[in-house]
Amino acid sequence: MRLSFKYKFILSFVIFEILFISLIVFLNFSSLNNLSNSLVRTNIESSSKLFNELIKTPLIINDLATIDNAVESFTKIDYIAAVRIVNNSNIAISHIHDENPMYKDILDKNITNIEINEEIFQLKSFSIDINKKIIANVQILYELSDIYKVIKDNRNRTFFLMILEILFSTIIAYIIGYRLTKRLTTLTLSAEEIAKNKQVNIIKDENIIDEVSILTNTLFIMQDKIFQRNNELEELVKELKYSTIQLKKERDFQIALINNTSSAILVLNNKYEVYNVNDTVKKLTGYKKSELKGKLIWDIFKDDNLKSIIINQSINDYPKEYENTLISKNESNALYTWSNSFTFNEYEEVEYIISVGIDISAIKEVQKKLEKYINLVNENIIISRTNLDGIITDVSEAFCKISGFSKEELIGQSHVVMRHEDTPLEVHETLWKTITSGKIWKSEVKNKTKDGGFYWTDSTIYPDYDNNRNIIGYYAIRHDITNKKFIENLSITDPLTKLYNRRYFDDIFYKELNRAKRDKTIFCLLSLDVDYFKLYNDTYGHQEGDIVLQTISKILILNLKRPSDFSFRMGGEEFSAIFTMNNEKNIYEFAEYIRKSIEDTKIEHKKNSVSQFITVSIGVVFVDFNKNCEMNILKKDLYKYSDKLLYKAKDSGRNRVFIEEWIK
User: Fold this and answer.
1) Which residue(s) pair with 324 in the sheet?
2) 75-119 confidence digits (pLDDT tens)
């Protein structure tokens, strides 16, 4: 049952009063109880202490008469009903009032707290000792009836006052609520009369002191405003008549516009029959409006599926658009995309269907050509897409063809599955650093096929953005340059050792020198020569000599495989290498490791005066760009200096390494 505002107000007021008074009573009772307990405890402890002091002295001299006098006088203290002193054999030495049956029962049974005939007693016991030896036990019975009676009376009085306060608060709340509700009821009835467009006499309160007065004055103002609005509405009706005339002119203009648009527009009734068409439909079909009116829409389009499409659209608003061929009187066809909108009556039933069609014949032709071009790209251009984590999301057929992997095998994988071991990890690190910063990365990359082969591509990787210019992935376009790289390698590679030749040395020297200068590292140029190689060829033959050169090449390739490492055959038994290091000690250790690795192949060389095996002499010149990055160096000067160090190693006994820093 819903309560009126008056009773809600009274109920809320009373509940608040009950809670507030209950809190006060709770605090009062708690405080009173603590006070009473403290009073009782204080009286008991003080009297017990006094009795203990009075008793001790007589007991020392065993003066029983004195003990009796002490006990007799002690009963004059408030709240003490009976006293008993017993020795260790539980024989009474002295007592007062303990023969009273009511007191004796309490003392004999050692009952701590008891209530008899609405009287409350508390028993306290303690021992009397001399030199830590107990010689007697004292029992004191306190009567606390008066104290607890005061507490009980106080509680009853408090409860009575609380009930009285609640009744008084309820009466006050009722009076306030009644007056407030009466004023609000009057305002409500006045508002209902105003809503019926009736004039109501509202007395305006000039002395605004509360919300109801404010509401009364507001209602007074509202009534004036309503009658003012009525006058304005009459003026508005006049203007509306004029606007209707203008609207008719606008409607005529809209009809002319609809008839001259290139879109075909049909208006259907709720039975899906043609109700009206624009002039474009008449021109396209060759039919007059009278010939089309009343025909079912699917009969005009000669499409049995159209019936279910439009009916589903009107019920479920699905699909939003559909394609259909508009057939003319001379049976020529034009492909249109149609979209329908619906008007509804007051019962939410479809009243009219407005169907708008746009000729997409030309667009379809373009789409066919575009699909053809996409297929050509898919079959001939190596394309792949990845997400932000580098996981492949799509690849072209050309990508699958060159890699040997199927689309299903590639999607969900990273490009690591195609990384050739000849491609250093530094290349991929640079790639990710570039594209994640939003830049385009371009390079020639060697990749591995599914069957273990390889292919070269000229790769360009672009960040892929959404409409808000956020990177959502990456796409790569690659061109197969395997044949180009093969021909290129033939021109820069020594056919016997597969090392780079002198021509390639000349091509990249300054490129690597400038890279070291830019990175502020130590640029190293190594020259290596086989000791007594002519004697080896004369002794073992040129075929064995070629094997020695190939063996040395493999050691150089194995140890010089970073992107900044290059090894060359400069001619005959002379080799060279370009690399970078962090400090001078590492340069010597690296060159010495190559020298020792070649000797450890243990290729027999009887004519070698420094060893029974093939050995080499090595000279290394290095430039520390940490010290001076502005230094300008000529290739011929640096190569000549490394060659000088090589011959210094030969002149010093061969099979050794000489290194020196280039100082301008």
Assistant:
1) 336
2) 666 678 788 888 777 777 777 677 677 777 777 777 666 766 667
CA separation for the pair 372, 300 (Å, rounded): 33
State how far the alpha carbon of 268 is from the alpha carbons of 296, 302, 335, 559, 633, in Å. 9, 16, 20, 83, 88
Q: Which residues of 20-51 are buried (b: 16+ CB within 10 A; e: fewer)?
A: ebeeebeeeeeeeeeebeeebeebbeebbeeb
517-521 long-range contacts, Cβ below 8 Å, gap at least 24? 517/625, 517/629, 517/631, 519/580, 519/625, 520/625, 520/626, 520/629, 521/580, 521/581, 521/582, 521/625, 521/626
- Which tokens sit at 644? 């000088």
Query: What residues are annotated to the active site?
Result: 573
* CA contacts within 13 A on the Cβ side of 308: 2
Q: What is the DSSP string of 309-361?
A: HHHHHHHH---SEEEEEEE-TT--EEEEEEEEEEEE-TTS-EEEEEEEEEE-H
Q: In whole angstroms, what is the distance from residue 608 CA to residue 535 CA?
A: 8
Strand partners, 273: 296
Rounded to the nearest 5 degrees, what angle is found at the Cα of 412, between the Cα atoms of 407 and 416? 90
What contacts 585, CB < 8 A, 6 or more positions away?
A: none
List pLDDT tens digits, range 430-482.
888 888 888 888 888 888 888 888 888 888 988 988 888 888 888 888 888 87
| Sequence letter at residue 43 | N
pTM: 0.41
User: Do 392 and 386 meet the contact criterion of CB atoms below 8 Å apart?
Assistant: yes
